[in-house]
């Protein structure tokens, strides 16, 4: 049975159907950040929405579902200190959560979070430091299912991005990961499937290795995903002969990976 | 091991609450003696107590639905659990403050005015009115937080409420219908809040 089953969920203009199996890392991508955020809030049971089920029960305000999942928006500042005893006490008293101190300290050292914080009465993190701190907290809470928004916010160094994404999509650590993608490329090879909200009011669940085609805007597409007015990026459903014919007719096109989509927008 | 148990007891919320209550009882006793020296109005403590919790409840409730609820929901606390805890905390504050007020009245009465009836020393309509104000304001703050009211407007409103309440308490005599009205308002608002809280989008 799927860990999370979404059937005909209506959100803004989109109708969404998606199944998240145990042991899967699933990405959510759109050029409109609001729809990703809205979707993740519904999928994590925070906001009401019809059609989201966990073990055949609606996920909305579902206690069993809540106990095993955590939702984090890495743009948000969750920590104002790195003192583990304070964090542990606050989590226990306010939220009844257990906190793995050792893991938090280990990740903190690996990412050098202290180097990304101005230490005063309250810690002021740089944007990268805030993402590091949130990531360390995410790992230290030991929740099996995670929902993360803006996972690479404020990060510039490829090795930092790689480490965070690798850790978040590691299905040996997390049972499921539902990630609102803020940049595509680093996720290459890490996701089982991606939910894509197109610019045309449709939602598609694509496999990680999905191939897209970039064509002039005037050519009509069966499954268009994005457009900038001049060109359209669509799901590639063409056979080899059709592509050859297009080449012959001098219709310029590019075949791209789903992860390269941002280079064309 | 012993140290750990000691630390756990010291850090427990129940212990902290008990320590605060004991400290408050001691301070009330001392203040009753001091009030006599400076000839203060005997109601001043009751106003201060309920005024403080009413304002705190108003601000806390606003921040709970405005900011805190989002955090708690993200970390796995359900809306039902948040509301249940909020109601429990509100009533606990109410019970503790009523207990402190009752203690103050009894000690004051025993020390100074034991020749009179306690109902002649304190206006019981006021004593009922003030906790109801706390409840109503707390529920109002909770509602305004859900409405995502602008902070500046909220703090201006807080100021207006404080001034209005002071004027009502100083210049108007509290009547029974005011208490009934506040009680009805609190009950209805408590139910409306639950309904909205279970539905509103963050």
The total strand number of chain A stands at 16
Number of helices of chain A: 7
Number of domains of chain B: 1
**Extended strand count of chain B:** 0
Q: Poorly predicted ranges of chain A (pLDDT <50, ≥5 residues)?
A: none
Number of helices of chain B: 8
**Which class do the helix and strand fractions of chain B yield?**
mainly alpha
Mean pLDDT of chain A: 90
CATH topology term of the largest domain in chain A: Rossmann fold
Structural class of chain A: alpha/beta
**What is the CATH architecture descriptor of the largest domain in chain A?**
3-Layer(aba) Sandwich
Helix content of chain B: over 70%
Give the full name of the CATH homologous superfamily of the largest domain in chain A.
Answer: P-loop containing nucleotide triphosphate hydrolases
Q: What's the alpha carbon Rg of chain A, rounded to whole Å?
A: 20 Å
SSE blueprint and pairings:
The complex is a heterodimer of chains A (265) and B (202).
Chain A: E1 4-11, E2 14-20, E3 24-30, H1 33-43, E4 52-54, E5 57-58, H2 63-67, E6 69-73, H3 84-95, H4 101-111, E7 117-118, E8 124-125, H5 127-140, E9 145-149, H6 158-168, E10 176-180, E11 193-197, E12 203-207, E13 211-216, E14 224-227, E15 231-235, H7 240-248, E16 254-257
Parallel strand pairs in A: 3-10, 3-11, 6-9, 9-10
Antiparallel strand pairs in A: 1-2, 1-4, 4-5, 7-8, 11-12, 13-15, 13-16, 14-15
Helix pairs in contact in A: 4-5
Chain B: H1 2-11, H2 13-38, H3 44-74, H4 79-111, H5 118-121, H6 124-146, H7 151-171, H8 176-199
Helix pairs in contact in B: 2-4, 3-4, 3-6, 4-6, 6-8
